[in-house]
């Protein structure tokens, strides 16, 4: 299926040609020196061949020796505003409890700005078999698909994680990209929709079209991941994003967003750092992720921050914890994953992050923390809520579409 | 003066050619001393450069996003030059403006430090260097907060009706201002070093020969500081042309610089490595050519 890289060259490469010329005699010392330099350059060029894509099945995986028993350390990459925090936001109560219970020292990094930039940084190292100094990274479904396909994460021992097996919500157990969840465990799920400050906007925003008004010109930020922003625009253009749409539909959405940037409505297209623009007041509305807006309302003590699903629909996605292929502390990682599937712990996290909780039983625990939150459709959505609001999942793209659409998005929307 | 100096160092042929073995030994010592530097350059400059060249000619592996195969795909360079010509132009324009602005700000500052500061000289020097104690990104980020729409700068200017757009951040003006700010010390320090070394008696001589202040400056002081000016403009222009942080944090959504394209090709596009590498190489080559022409035109015998 994969075309074989062009390798068979009838003509000789310049260094080789020069060498054969030298062998046939009649070459000045100067030319010979040049040949040497060219030959060594050629040698150097051929030395750095890029790693080939994975060929064999999972059996070809070589896992590093696990040292969790002796190294009580765990390093976790996650997104901002994605774990419960104490009042001063210096520590996470649940994480501190985990460290006390297990003696594992967890270093928690909010270093994922968006999926692409994170994965592009770590993938080359993982492919080369090098450590990335992380034992868990937390990436969205479509990126998890790619990580699993590229064989850059380790298979998980579900038998070591009774909470996960018992409490992972049934629909998530059958995730299309990881049947049986052998490689990835859901961290949280969430929605993309409209986030805005009702006081500063001065009215309710119900659809995407409500964003494109003169009083909001230049005060709107949208997410840099096209699976959120383009998806919402496509939905507003009447496209069923779960069905088999194609290039034309995507182009329409990109053209629309580009126009809104050119006309000055959209100020910036950003990753998770869009929160800074909302905090600083540069922007008052935008296409955002659900939980972030609730955290923002809490952080700024401003209840007028509102999240809503536009009338035309929104998206639902999940972020998944995975163990990088070169991590030597998979067992520690599994203990942490299992810990967060304890319903009481999960409820504590959900009460702070306000994202969709993937843990069965957490709703009952939430009753004890905050009965209002236990009823919140943003944390415990019912099937009717999903259907009524036309909340969909962006269809999985194949590799070529992925590249093509990323390119189009980058040059037309990201301004590159 | 130079003849005198020579005479002092070289005792004028008293000691004729030294014995041959010793000369050989001495030249070996020189090479040995060079070795660490050469090794360092080889490992940390030449090797990565070769790797970059190799990557810039690779092709995308069809069907596997983010994988490549070895190739001689010069189309990467064609794409770098045709698709991203406006980004190159913008980079050079903004970097050029920032260099001019930094020069306009830095020269009087360096001049004051060298000739007028007196006991304040050290304090002024510390003030110029102080920003280096904080990270470049943090300082730029601080500007994004200072210049925010609801910050006091924008508020104050709006109150005075001096800001018709009501926005500083996310405009090209903010980008050029950020570049100027960030690279100003690189302009001040070399100019200061040249001016400080200038012999004040030579400048006084200008006055003695009936030149007015401006003529003395134009024909004596400025030429003496040219090595510093040259070094300063290079140290400002070269990094500014490749910078992407200022555009990312302070700039508008559309109309990015070439550094942002490289960053995006590298990080946001599955399979963007070859084009990113080709762009880096093209940028390097373009800057080299520009610097070469510039130094040929304005260069002096020495830098700084």
Automatic annotation (TrEMBL), chain A:
**Gene Ontology cellular component list:** periplasmic space
Q: Which InterPro entries match?
A: SBP, Sperm_putr-bd, TAT_signal
Give the UniProt keywords, A-Z. Answer: Periplasm, Signal, Transport
Q: Does the keyword Transport apply?
A: yes
Which Pfam family name is an example for this entry? SBP_bac_8
Can you provide one Gene Ontology molecular function annotated for this UniProt record? Answer: polyamine binding
One GO term (biological process): polyamine transport
Localization recorded for this chain is: Periplasm
Q: Where is it chiefly localized? A: periplasm
Write the protein's name. Spermidine/putrescine ABC transporter substrate-binding protein
Q: Which organism is it from?
A: Nocardioides alpinus
From TrEMBL, chain B:
One Gene Ontology cellular component term attached to this UniProt record is: plasma membrane
Subcellular location, record wording: Cell membrane
Using the UniProt record, give the first listed, main subcellular location: membrane
List, for all copies, the residue spans of the domain called ABC transmembrane type-1: 88-294
- List the Pfam families: BPD_transp_1 (PF00528)
- UniProt key word Cell cycle: no
Q: Which InterPro entries match?
A: MetI-like, MetI-like_sf
Question: What does the record list as GO biological process?
Answer: transmembrane transport
Please verify whether the record's keywords include Cell membrane: yes
What CDD domains would the database entry show? Answer: TM_PBP2
What the record says about family reads: Belongs to the binding-protein-dependent transport system permease family. CysTW subfamily.
Q: What is this protein called?
A: ABC transporter permease
Q: Which organism is it from?
A: Nocardioides alpinus
């Amino acid at each position: 299926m994969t075309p074989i890289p062009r390798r068979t060259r009838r003509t000789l490469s310049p260094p080789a040609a020069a060498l054969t010329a030298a062998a046939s005699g009649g070459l000045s010392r100067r030319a010979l020196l040049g040949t040497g330099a060219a030959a060594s350059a050629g040698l150097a060029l051929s030395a750095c061949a890029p790693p080939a894509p994975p060929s064999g099945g999972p059996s070809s995986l070589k896992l590093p020796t696990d040292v969790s028993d002796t190294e009580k350390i765990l390093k976790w990459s996650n997104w901002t505003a994605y774990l419960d925090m104490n009042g001063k936001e210096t520590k996470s109560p649940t994480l501190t409890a985990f460290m006390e219970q297990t003696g594992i020292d967890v270093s928690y990094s909010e270093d994922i700005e968006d999926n692409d930039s994170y994965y592009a940084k770590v993938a080359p190292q993982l492919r080369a078999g090098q450590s990335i100094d992380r034992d868990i990274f937390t990436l969205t479904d479509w990126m998890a698909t790619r990580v699993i396909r590229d064989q850059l994460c380790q298979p998980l021992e579900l038998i070591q994680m009774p909470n996960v097996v018992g409490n992972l919500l049934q629909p998530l157990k059958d995730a299309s990209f990881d049947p049986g969840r052998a490689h990835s465990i859901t961290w949280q799920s969430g929605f993309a929709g409209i986030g805005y400050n009702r006081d500063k906007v001065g009215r309710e925003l119900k659809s995407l079209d409500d964003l494109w008004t003169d009083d909001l010109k230049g005060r709107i930020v949208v997410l840099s991941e096209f699976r959120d922003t383009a998806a919402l625009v496509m939905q507003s253009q009447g496209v069923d994003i779960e069905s088999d749409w194609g290039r034309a539909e995507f182009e329409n959405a990109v053209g629309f967003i580009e126009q809104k940037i050119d006309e000055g409505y959209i100020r910036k297209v950003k990753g998770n750092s869009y929160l800074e623009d909302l905090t600083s007041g540069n922007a008052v509305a935008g296409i955002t992720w659900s939980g972030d807006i609730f955290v923002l309302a809490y952080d700024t003590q401003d209840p007028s921050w509102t999240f809503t699903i536009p009338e035309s629909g929104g998206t639902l996605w999940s972020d998944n914890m995975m163990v990088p292929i070169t991590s030597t502390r998979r067992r520690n990682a599994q203990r942490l994953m299992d810990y967060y599937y304890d319903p009481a712990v999960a409820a504590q996290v959900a009460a702070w992050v306000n994202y969709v909780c993937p843990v069965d039983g957490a709703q009952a625990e939430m009753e004890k923390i905050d009965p209002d939150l236990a009823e919140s459709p943003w944390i415990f959505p019912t099937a009717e809520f999903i259907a009524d609001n036309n909340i969909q999942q962006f269809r999985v793209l194949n590799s070529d579409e992925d590249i093509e659409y990323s390119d189009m998005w980058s040059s037309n929307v990201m301004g590159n | 003066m130079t003849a005198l100096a020579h005479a002092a160092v070289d005792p004028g042929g008293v000691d004729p050619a030294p014995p041959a073995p010793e000369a050989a030994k001495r030249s070996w010592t020189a090479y040995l001393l060079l070795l660490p530097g050469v090794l360092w350059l080889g490992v940390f400059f030449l090797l990565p450069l070769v790797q970059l060249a190799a990557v810039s000619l690779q092709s995308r592996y069809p069907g596997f996003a983010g994988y490549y195969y070895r190739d001689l795909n010069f189309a990467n360079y064609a794409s770098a030059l045709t698709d991203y010509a406006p980004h190159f132009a913008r980079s050079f324009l903004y970097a050029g403006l920032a260099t001019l602005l930094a020069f306009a700000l830095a020269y009087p500052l360096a001049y004051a430090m060298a000739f007028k500061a007196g006991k304040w000289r050290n304090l002024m020097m510390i003030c110029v260097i102080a920003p280096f104690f904080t990270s470049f990104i943090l300082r730029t980020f601080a500007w994004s907060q200072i210049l925010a729409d609801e910050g006091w700068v924008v508020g104050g200017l709006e109150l005075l009706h001096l800001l018709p757009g009501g926005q500083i951040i996310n405009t090209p003006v903010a980008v050029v201002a950020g570049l100027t700010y960030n690279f100003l010390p690189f302009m001040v320090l070399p100019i200061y070093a040249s001016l400080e070394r200038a012999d004040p008696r030579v400048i006084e001589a200008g006055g003695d020969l009936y030149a007015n202040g401006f003529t003395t400056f134009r024909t004596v002081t400025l030429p003496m500081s040219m090595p510093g000016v040259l070094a300063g403009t290079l140290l400002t222009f070269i990094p500014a042309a490749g910078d992407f942080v200022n555009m990312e944090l302070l700039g508008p959504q559309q109309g990015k610089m070439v550094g942002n394209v490289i960053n995006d090709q590298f990080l946001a596009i599955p399979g963007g490595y070859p084009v990113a590498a080709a762009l880096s190489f093209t940028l390097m080559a373009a800057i080299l050519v520009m610097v070469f022409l510039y130094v040929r035109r304005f260069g002096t015998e020495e830098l700084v």
